[in-house]
Design brief:
The complex is a heterodimer. Helix content of chain A is 28%, strand content 22%. In chain A, the strands form six sheets. Chain A has a five-stranded mixed beta sheet. A four-stranded parallel beta sheet of chain A has the order 4-3-5-8, covered by helices on one side. In chain A, strands 16-15-14-22 form a four-stranded mixed beta sheet. Chain A has two domains: 196 residues, 3-Layer(aba) Sandwich (Rossmann fold); 114 residues, Luciferase, domain 3, CATH 2.30.38.10. Chain B is of the alpha/beta class. Chain B folds into four domains: 231 residues, 3-Layer(aba) Sandwich (Rossmann fold); 56 residues, no CATH class; 97 residues, Luciferase, Domain 3 (Luciferase, domain 3, Roll); 99 residues, GMP Synthetase, Chain A, domain 3 (2-Layer Sandwich). The longest helix of chain B has 17 residues. The chains are: A alpha/beta, B alpha/beta.
Chain lengths: 393, 511
């Protein structure tokens, strides 16, 4: 049976690919065996510091090996990772900490000219009753005692697919951000549906410029690598010249980029980038996905060209993904060619949204309305109305 | 539309002030008292590190202490996990571990059990200080007695107030373990919004409002007591009366508190009927409920079987089938459990064919249905269309009244036919002048299962005569092939008090 929890995956990859590079950033690299050990050691330190299963744990740091170690330390004991954008203004941070009920927060002390120590000191702690600990990533935590090590190991053994894994924030239509809740099981299975299509495997060296705090970086980058034994290449910040050097030095085989970034790099002959082949944009199916589906749920296999009559579609939903079109008023399920609301179902979608009751998130039969309109054709290709080429929100 | 939370219910109840909320024998609590005590305890819980989402287990009997602790936990967005006070040390350890409880609040003693000793045995160590046990890795702290929490530290109203403001209707309110009759207990999750809405609707249906008082002894660690008595009373702003006193004192209490509604199991009141003072008591204030032996003659049913029963389960936040009618029913409605309550939709599906019909397993969906079982994914509890398969076999008539046939697992399959044990038990009871009987299916190579009737008591029976009599009532394949006599004390039971059918089947095999 495939591993469906983060601790099980970490252990499996450490066992299968111990010396394979798991994560590489511009300053540091770590293989799967060391990633397993480092996340376990960090988990014990977090337990010592008062972190427990089910606690919401905010992480506001730039991309890098350290981000991954911290994230895996949190998730492997069944605490719930709440990745936070390093671009949040204090009021926005306050809001997200409240929505997700964050109990522990770790932040970089400063990043890109922002002094987070100072900004976080200004937070009105009295209005954040859940928030118990604020740590900065450059400050050492006290070492874990024997008991904490034992607890961390026991917690890791007991994490279940049903347990909450992460709360990922995405923009809401009304302005308030939505905290989308995913479990280990739904996230890992959802992610497993797309990797073959994206040609990600153990030999992949996948570069992902997106921040790990958003669904693209987190799901399509971090989790895709862990799920396949691939190497994740990531940078704290991306500048054209230094990124090209990094990609070249680290022999990137794949580049998960935004369409315009892909175009800018397409002419560079120094590496093979499967996602950036030169045929016209509309003949390549882009990936369609969202935070609520834990990333892409639909797409055409990378490197292939779609038949002419499928141009403009997003390919077919990945195996293991359930997609249907419903009448937006009556809820009736529509047939091929009929335009309606695109809905997602099955066991590989979000568990819920912070603060929203089930009836406000799912239909009576448990499906999620994506708010996109579209249709499925006779061959199961998905067309979305009024959408640009590429959309993973 | 913003839905209710425990904080919003407490705010609504502020106007009730010194009105009586709970009476448990000599233990009394007003609505104001409940608010104040729970606020103190909430403040202490916050100071101890608990808050929104904290899983806090409770080992307490029905009492003002229970009420104060439950409300303290839930008003700050914590999750209350009430455990049965009858749980063995082994069971408590299991519950703590599988529910990932972080804290436990236990009463000092209850019904002769000192919980400090029970917990010491459960955990294999003193239950004091900060706990770090790999066997129960999430548990950090146990408090004995709510007063240890109340006494600790200052009352920080502001902290409680702010914590309350952040509780949403979507937050989990409680995790109640099913008193499962076959498998390990499962933790059933309900949110503030759904359970409060559910009980509001049910209160309306049974006319349980501020002016009423309810007598019900159901324990508050299971859903019947917790939702249908305790939370119902809180939400209605009504009085709830419980008692575990001797019959004479219980009668005193009933006369003093004058509950208009009395619900529960017949055994509670059998002793009352037998009390020497019973004839001199005036219980005419009792107008509604199912404790017929103590109700005034004019409201009693001519035949108790010709009144609607009710059905509830943990998964639906207590009652799912109900009819408020207090009228005697026509013969055709014998065995009725009433209609589906508001907040549910149902299907009746034949387990063999998968087709909807009038006989089959009851499937449920809707806002009253749990969020899921703790530790299990949604698809492990719900089918692809979101239906919960209850395992209860029912039939439904043209009026929408449900008739309960038994648990799917209890249904006996003998020589290709399905037999409801309840039906056979009912027939036996009629023919033996009410002698208690349990009908089970015992594995048989030839027939799959054979119907075995266990008659309780010491009196011998004439099997042939009984079989002949049964054949006048039941189809031949429903008549028990085997009869056994057992005394009540020989019956194997689970800690919930329910009969341990599995063990009973094994015992029957051997005889």
């Amino acid at each position: 049976m495939n591993a469906e929890t983060i601790p099980a995956l970490l252990e499996a990859m450490a066992s299968q690919y111990p010396h394979k590079e798991a994560i590489v950033d511009t300053k540091r690299r770590i293989d799967y065996a060391d990633l397993e050990k480092a996340s376990a050691a960090r988990a014990a330190a977090l337990v010592e510091a008062g972190v427990n299963k089910g606690h919401r744990f905010g992480l506001a740091m730039p991309n890098g090996v350290e981000w991954a170690i911290e994230a895996y330390a949190v998730m492997r004991i069944g605490a719930v990772l709440v990745p936070l954008s390093t671009l949040l203004r204090p009021a926005e941070l306050q809001s997200q900490l409240t929505i997700a009920g964050v109990r522990h927060l770790i932040s970089a002390p400063e990043f890109r000219g922002r002094d987070f120590r100072a900004e976080i000191a200004e937070l009105d702690r009295s209005t954040l009753p859940s928030l118990r600990n604020i740590w900065f990533s450059t400050d050492a935590l006290p070492p874990a005692g024997q008991a904490a090590h034992g607890i961390a190991a026991s917690l890791a053994d007991r994490v279940k697919p049903a347990d909450e894994m992460a709360v990922i924030f995405t923009a809401g239509s009304s302005g308030e951000p939505k905290g989308v809740i995913h479990s280990h099981g739904d996230a890992i299975r959802a992610n497993a549906c797309e990797n073959e299509s994206r040609c990600i495997g153990p030999d992949s060296r996948l570069y992902v410029p997106m921040p790990l705090f958003g669904i693209e970086g987190f799901a399509c980058g971090l989790i895709s690598a862990l799920n396949t034994g691939a190497t994740l290449l990531t940078e704290a910040s991306s500048e054209r010249a230094s990124t090209l050097r990094f990609l070249s030095k680290e022999r990137a085989t794949q580049f998960r980029g935004w369409a315009d970034q892909a175009e800018r790099r397409a002419h560079d002959p120094s590496f093979a980038a499967t996602d950036m082949s030169s045929p016209p944009p509309d003949s390549r199916a882009s990936l369609l996905g969202m935070t609520e589906s834990f990333g892409p749920y639909c797409g055409y296999p990378s490197g292939g060209l779609m038949p002419q009559d499928k141009h403009g579609s997003f390919g077919k939903p990945f195996e293991g993904r359930r997609v249907r079109i419903a009448d937006p008023d009556s809820g009736a399920i529509l047939g091929p060619g009929e335009e309606g609301a695109i809905q997602l179902g099955g066991p590989n979608i979000l568990k819920g949204i912070c603060g929203r009751e089930r009836e406000d998130v799912f239909t009576a039969d448990g499906w999620f309305d994506t708010s996109d309109m579209g249709h499925l054709d006779e061959d199961g290709f998905l067309f979305v109305s009024g959408r640009p080429d590429e959309m993973v929100k | 539309m913003k839905r209710d939370t425990i904080p919003s219910v407490l705010a609504e109840n502020a106007k009730l002030g010194d009105k009586t909320f709970l009476v448990v024998d000599r233990d009394r609590l007003t609505f104001a008292g409940a608010e104040l005590r729970s606020r103190r305890i909430a403040s202490a819980l916050i100071a101890a590190g608990a808050g929104r989402g904290s899983r806090i287990a409770m080992l307490m009997g029905n009492s003002s202490e229970y009420a104060a602790v439950f409300l303290a936990i839930t008003r700050i967005g914590g999750i209350a996990l009430p455990f049965s006070t009858m749980s063995t040390p082994h069971e408590i350890k299991g519950l703590l571990a599988t529910s990932d409880s972080e804290y436990l609040v236990a009463t000092e003693t209850y019904r002769g059990r000192a919980f400090r000793d029970v917990l010491r045995e459960a955990l294999g160590q003193d239950p004091d200080g900060q706990l770090m046990m790999p066997d129960v890795p999430t548990l950090r702290r146990i408090w004995f007695g709510a007063d240890t929490l109340e006494a600790n530290g200052l009352l920080d109203d502001a902290a409680v107030s702010i914590a309350q403001d952040q509780v949403t209707a979507a937050d989990t309110l409680m995790l109640v373990h099913t008193s499962g009759s076959t498998s390990a207990p499962k933790g059933v999750i309900h949110t503030h919004g759904q359970i409060i809405h559910n009980m509001r609707q049910q209160n309306k249906q049974r006319c349980y409002d501020e002016s009423k008082a309810l007598f019900a002894n159901s324990p508050w660690f299971w859903v019947g007591g917790l939702a249908y008595s305790f939370l119902a009373a809180l939400i209605a702003g009504a009085k709830l009366v419980c008692s575990s006193a001797k019959p004479g004192e219980m009668l005193d209490l009933l006369e003093a508190e004058r509950p208009t509604m009395c619900n529960g199991v017949a055994t509670t009141v059998l002793a009352l009927e037998q009390d020497p003072s019973f004839a001199d008591r005036d219980l005419s204030f009792i107008r509604y409920g199912n404790l017929y032996p103590i109700m005034p003659q004019e409201v009693r049913p001519k035949d108790p079987e010709l009144r609607h029963n009710l059905l509830g389960m943990t998964e639906t936040g207590s009652v799912c089938l109900y009819d408020p009618s207090e009228q005697d029913l026509p013969e055709a409605k014998r065995g009725s459990f009433g209609k589906l309550v508001e907040g549910l939709e149902a299907r009746v599906v034949d387990p063999e064919t998968g087709l909807d019909g009038k006989d089959g397993e009851m499937w449920l969906r809707g806002q009253n249905v749990m969020q899921g079982y703790y530790g299990r994914e949604r698809h492990e509890a719900f089918d692809e269309d979101g239906w919960y398969h209850s395992g209860d076999m029912v039939s439904i008539d043209d009026d929408g009244d449900f008739f309960f046939k038994g648990r799917n697992g209890d249904i006996i399959r003998t020589s290709g036919a399905q037999v409801s044990p309840r039906e056979v038990e009912g027939a036996l009871s009629d023919l033996t002048n009410g002698r208690a009987a349990i009908v089970i299916g015992v594995p048989d190579e030839a027939r799959g299962q054979i119907i075995t009737a266990i008659l309780i008591g010491t009196e011998a029976i004439d099997e042939d005569e009984l079989r002949a009599a049964l054949r006048t009532r039941l189809s031949p394949y429903k008549v028990p092939r085997k009869f056994l006599i057992m005394e009540e004390h020989e019956l194997p039971t689970l800690s919930s008090g329910k009969i341990d059918i599995k063990t009973l089947v094994e015992m029957a095999r051997e005889r």
